[in-house]
């Protein structure tokens, strides 16, 4: 086909990277010669293109980029010439979109002639540059066979027009606006100088007269995408009309509400993602007011789901799925319309959440996923799923990475990710649009202020982009109860009851449910959609095409698709998902959300009718559904714990009520009782471990990044709440019970921290290098493993001038104060001067004015974890080690500063964080317990009456604290008992301290025997696995009580 030089250049310019390297294009040597480019200049240009590609594909990592090319059989020197100007290889046919692009161009330039007619006013008013593009819509409509069919009203046909032009507008708006703005400046008119359409009309007239060709030449990707969308619309619209024409007469037989219909009067599109060459869901409204949903894909899953719904009703269950009626064809289907009403009454709410639990259980059993708020509605007070193509979803195959020490963590995350959370109904805390929200089908939905950039004064001379703030729901369905936003947390019992009842019902009736005549037979050979990435990520990449700069050529445009490679598994040479990326790029190049399909009972992933991978996903689900149901029954308690924690993530856990300490019968041998209780906790924690390749990990409920909720995740590596802290606890268990398996568990827990030192990110004593150094020092002693001490020395080298200079926290948790204590622990055991020098460097990093020790919040604090007490302790110990009087003087100034914060009325040190300070906390982290601990730990350095008085004040505050509340090490009873035991060791406190300590400890140990009366941050015992906020911390305090000569106080990093 003769396309002429202009269109040949457009085809070449718009070619993607994959197309340039496909063999259909060759470097444009003629253009290089015309510009007399030297070889060195060409080499520099090619190198610049390669560097751009490298940035997008591998974040600038040259080694990874070389490997990225190698995976496709490419080399940098071979591909470089194809990234600049190229031409079609001689004899190659031009791309299919080019023919459409030519008539699209002609329609825009010519204005379509008299036959086109005027752009409808509603489109002209709301769609930018609609009159300019309207001739394309008219020309496209003429190419759709049957578009004027009598079964479509004029309004319905108009709706189809609107679907096309709105999709086209996503591509052209920014580019045409850029030209409009340039035109307006060229004629010397500012937006505020005009208000009518005259300037706009002058622009469109001028554009058609010649500059549009220049625009297309400079933005060839725009015309390519316009042509692609038009081609898709012509095909899918014709397909839809043909199917409607063939089926409409029989609608009444399948959908009783569609009796006596004659014409479609309205069509709603744009309500689903575009898949499979521009196909998406349509909602039809007929002349009778009845509705019907058209799905341009196989809907066998929806049809089978209706069969499950009917089976449940017919087999004595109270589970009502409200499944919509369907009419299923091989490649498409019709589905009854579900009237959505998210306004519930207080009487309906318990039923709704119980039904939601039932739905969650059934979807979980059938391995449904991606059931976010757009895939289900509420009808008659019950949840109704409207999109079932992601049932029987095999998870991505677990592929251990190249670091064996992380295999346990990877396995933990993988196992959790394929559990009940995968369904998508339960909320998870996410940052969406700069706001932390609960994201999930049942998430509480609260509108958030969102910045929205939009065109105002559309198609007028003063048309401009304007940024406005609008209230928008970022997640959830906006469910209300008696007019107020619903919160699933209020109905967690109903939700869990519905979940349990359904799992039990399916288990009790498994023979009928799973039998050959059971409802699951309808799912045999049914097509499913594999969800391999979040759709939002694809949409982010698709959004990039809207900027004019990314439409300048196909190389720049398709660079954005290369970002997919960043998430590839570079640690696996034979990564089975690599072939997926090419299919993703192809789909994105036609503005589709990539569609990967499979079968309920067949292994493998397909795209565009081709088998892409057989080992990227786990085996098909349907053949193994019997085993799955048995597993769900066995793991019911654990799944309920997950549901409870997720639903109640933003609510403070129910804690034991405050009450006076009972004068409980004294344990016959307090140290022995403490030892037994500690080892009991250790056995439970060991049982919860996920073990793999010699490493251990745990699931934990830990604070989200915004600090407002608890999120379940695989445990990290830090000391505070990571596996390093658990390792120290197990090492202590080994010291008092050497015949147990504790040493093996301790070393397994240490595997990940030792392998990920560089990722710690701070120098601190509990969340940084200092903490890991301390753990290794103590474990070396407790486990009699000298190699750990050598490793501690090596890790201490991470605390260098760069790391110290970067420290802004300054405190014990994350800052140099904690680093000093960790380094001094190492120095005491090694005498290594380099280690002491690093501690001295950390000491010099603390400002000379303690009022400037600002780390957490906007002011300096009192306290051990983030305040002056921790820094003073570090400085005094540093002075003791090195003899530098400057550290002693600074410590004394720190003492005076902290004393200035003391509240003589409350007789305590306030926690000044936040808008409402806590007047008299009695915790290790903040308040009397930690401050008294710090003062006692430094008595061998600084001992005077004022310090003694502060210690006695702190002990009195601890003794005045009632039973109940939190039991953890950081801010609960475990930390307070650790402090009191230390006081007994040093002879501090009142004369009856030992008596009171032993009786309270006995009462506490008795209470710890009942997991329902332990007060911790996480809801359920299975997620109370971290040192400072969980059960291991309680065990650690008990170990210190049981064997103080071996187990030193962790809270002072002694």
Number of distinct helices: 39
Strand content: 5-15%
First-residue to last-residue Cα separation: 82 Å
Strand order of the largest sheet: 3-4-5-7-6
Kindly provide the radius of gyration, computed on alpha-carbon positions and rounded to a whole number of angstroms.
34 Å
Helix content: 40-55%
The major β-sheet equals: 5 strands, antiparallel
Class from helix and strand fractions: alpha+beta
Q: How would you state the average pLDDT, rounded?
A: 94
Poorly predicted regions are: none
Shape: globular
Number of strands: 24
Per-chain topology:
Blueprint: H1 4-13, H2 17-20, E1 25-27, H3 29-34, H4 39-58, H5 62-71, H6 76-79, E2 86-88, H7 97-110, H8 121-126, H9 130-142, H10 154-186, H11 198-208, H12 211-218, H13 220-247, H14 251-254, E3 264-268, E4 282-286, E5 291-295, H15 300-314, E6 326-328, E7 333-336, E8 343-344, H16 348-365, E9 376-379, E10 382-385, H17 407-417, E11 428-432, E12 435-439, E13 448-456, E14 464-472, E15 480-481, E16 484-485, H18 492-508, H19 510-514, E17 527-530, H20 535-543, H21 554-559, H22 578-589, E18 596-599, E19 602-607, E20 610-613, H23 625-634, H24 636-647, H25 670-687, E21 690-692, E22 695-697, E23 699-703, E24 710-714, H26 723-736, H27 742-755, H28 769-782, H29 786-796, H30 801-806, H31 816-830, H32 833-845, H33 868-882, H34 885-900, H35 928-937, H36 945-959, H37 973-986, H38 993-1008, H39 1031-1042
Parallel strand pairs: 8-15
Antiparallel strand pairs: 1-2, 3-4, 4-5, 5-7, 6-7, 9-10, 11-12, 13-14, 15-16, 17-18, 18-19, 19-20, 21-22, 23-24
Helix pairs in contact: 4-5, 7-9, 7-13, 9-10, 9-13, 10-13, 12-13, 16-18, 18-23, 18-24, 25-26, 25-38, 25-39, 26-27, 26-28, 26-39, 28-29, 28-31, 29-31, 31-32, 31-33, 32-33, 33-34, 33-35, 35-36, 35-37, 37-38, 37-39
């Amino acid at each position: 086909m003769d396309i002429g030089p202009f269109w040949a250049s457009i085809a070449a310019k718009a070619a993607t990277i994959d197309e340039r390297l496909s063999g259909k294009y060759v470097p444009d040597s003629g253009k290089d010669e015309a510009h007399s480019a030297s070889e060195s200049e060409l080499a520099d240009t090619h190198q610049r293109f390669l560097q751009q590609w490298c940035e997008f594909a591998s974040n600038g990592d040259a080694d990874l980029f070389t490997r990225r090319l190698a995976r496709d059989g490419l080399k940098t020197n071979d591909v470089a010439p194809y990234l600049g100007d190229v031409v079609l290889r001689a004899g190659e046919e031009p791309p299919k979109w080019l023919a459409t692009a030519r008539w699209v161009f002609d329609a825009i330039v010519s204005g379509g002639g008299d036959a086109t007619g005027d752009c409808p006013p509603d489109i002209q008013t709301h769609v930018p540059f609609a009159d300019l593009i309207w001739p394309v819509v008219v020309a496209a409509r003429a190419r759709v066979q049957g578009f004027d069919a009598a079964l479509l009203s004029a309004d319905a046909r108009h709706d189809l027009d609107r679907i096309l032009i709105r999709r086209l507008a996503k591509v052209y708006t920014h580019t045409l606006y850029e030209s409009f703005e340039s035109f307006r400046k060229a004629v010397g008119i500012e937006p505020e100088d005009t208000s009518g359409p005259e300037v706009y009309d002058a622009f469109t007239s001028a554009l058609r007269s010649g500059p549009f060709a220049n625009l297309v030449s400079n933005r060839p990707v725009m015309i390519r995408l316009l042509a692609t969308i038009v081609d898709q619309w012509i095909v899918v619209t014709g397909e839809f009309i043909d199917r409607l024409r063939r089926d409409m007469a029989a609608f009444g037989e399948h959908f009783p509400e569609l009796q006596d219909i004659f014409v479609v009067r309205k069509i709603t599109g744009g309500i689903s993602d575009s898949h499979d060459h521009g196909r998406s869901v349509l909602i039809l409204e007929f002349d009778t007011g009845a509705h019907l949903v058209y799905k341009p894909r196989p809907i066998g899953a929806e049809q089978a789901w209706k069969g499950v719904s009917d089976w449940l009703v017919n087999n004595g269950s109270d589970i009502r799925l409200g499944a919509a009626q369907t009419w299923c064809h091989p490649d498409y289907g019709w589905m009854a319309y579900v009237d959505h009403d998210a306004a519930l009454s207080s009487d309906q709410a318990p039923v709704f959440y119980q039904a939601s639990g039932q739905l969650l259980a059934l979807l979980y059993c059938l391995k449904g996923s991606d059931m976010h708020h757009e895939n289900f509605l509420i009808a008659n007070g019950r949840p109704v799923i409207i999109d079932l193509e992601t049932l029987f979803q095999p998870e991505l195959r677990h592929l251990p990475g190249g670091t064996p020490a992380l295999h346990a963590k990877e396995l933990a995350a993988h196992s959790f990710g394929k559990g009940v959370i995968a369904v998508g109904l339960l909320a998870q805390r996410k940052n969406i649009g700069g706001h932390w929200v609960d994201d999930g089908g049942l998430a509480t939905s609260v509108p958030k202020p969102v910045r929205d950039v939009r065109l105002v004064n559309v198609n007028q001379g003063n048309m401009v982009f304007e940024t406005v703030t609008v209230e928008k729901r970022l997640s959830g369905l906006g469910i209300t109860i008696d007019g107020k936003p619903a919160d699933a947390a209020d109905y967690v019992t109903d939700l869990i009851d519905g979940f349990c009842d359904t799992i039990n019902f399916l288990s009790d009736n498994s023979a009928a449910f799973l039998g050959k005549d059971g409802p699951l037979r309808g799912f045999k050979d049914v097509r499913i959609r594999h969800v391999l990435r979040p759709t939002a990520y694809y949409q982010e990449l698709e959004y990039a095409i809207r900027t004019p700069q990314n439409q300048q050529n196909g190389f720049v445009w398709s660079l954005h698709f290369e970002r997919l490679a960043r998430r590839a598994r570079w640690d696996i040479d034979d990564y089975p998902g690599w072939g997926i990326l090419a299919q993703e790029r192809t789909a994105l190049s036609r503005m589709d959300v990539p569609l990967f399909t499979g079968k309920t009972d067949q292994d493998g992933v397909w795209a565009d009718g081709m088998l892409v991978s057989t080992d990227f996903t786990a085996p098909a689900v349907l053949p193994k559904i019997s085993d799955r149901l048995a597993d769900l029954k066995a793991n019911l308690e654990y799944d309920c714990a997950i549901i409870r924690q997720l639903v109640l993530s933003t609510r403070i856990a129910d804690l034991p009520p405050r009450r006076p300490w009972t004068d409980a019968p004294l344990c016959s041998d307090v140290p022995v009782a403490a030892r037994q209780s500690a080892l009991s906790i250790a056995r439970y924690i060991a049982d919860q471990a996920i073990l793999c390749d010699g490493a251990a990990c745990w699931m934990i409920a830990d604070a989200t990044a915004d600090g407002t909720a608890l999120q379940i995740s695989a445990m990290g590596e830090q000391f505070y709440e990571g596996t390093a802290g658990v390792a120290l606890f197990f090492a202590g268990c080994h010291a008092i019970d050497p015949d147990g398996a504790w040493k093996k568990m301790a070393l397994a827990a240490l595997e990940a921290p030792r392998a990920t030192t560089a990722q710690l990110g701070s120098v601190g004593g509990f969340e940084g290098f200092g903490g890991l150094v301390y753990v290794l020092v103590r474990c070396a002693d407790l486990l009699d493993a000298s190699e750990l001490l050598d490793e501690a020395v090596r890790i201490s080298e991470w605390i260098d001038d760069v790391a110290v200079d970067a420290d802004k926290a300054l405190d014990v948790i994350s800052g140099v104060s904690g680093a000093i204590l960790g380094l001094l622990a190492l120095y005491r055991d090694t005498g290594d001067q380099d280690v002491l020098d690093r501690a001295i460097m950390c000491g010099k990093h603390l400002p000379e004015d303690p009022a400037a020790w600002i780390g957490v919040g906007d002011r300096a604090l009192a306290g051990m974890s983030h305040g002056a007490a921790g820094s003073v302790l570090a400085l005094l110990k540093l002075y003791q080690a090195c003899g530098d009087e400057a550290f002693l003087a600074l410590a004394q100034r720190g003492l005076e500063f902290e004393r200035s914060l003391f509240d003589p009325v409350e007789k305590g040190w306030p926690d000044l964080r936040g808008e409402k300070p806590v007047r008299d906390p009695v915790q290790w982290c903040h308040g009397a317990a930690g401050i008294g601990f710090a003062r006692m730990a430094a008595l061998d350095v600084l001992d005077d009456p004022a310090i003694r008085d502060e210690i006695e004040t702190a002990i009195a505050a601890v003794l005045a604290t009632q039973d109940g509340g939190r039991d953890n090490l950081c801010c609960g009873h475990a930390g307070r008992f650790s402090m009191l035991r230390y006081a007994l060791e040093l002879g501090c406190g009142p004369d009856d301290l030992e008596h009171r300590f032993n009786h309270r400890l006995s009462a506490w140990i008795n209470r710890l025997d009942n997991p329902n009366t332990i007060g911790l941050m996480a809801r359920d015992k299975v997620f109370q696995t971290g040192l400072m906020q969980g059960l291991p911390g309680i065990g650690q305090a008990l170990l210190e009580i049981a064997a103080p000569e071996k187990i030193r106080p962790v809270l002072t990093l002694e």
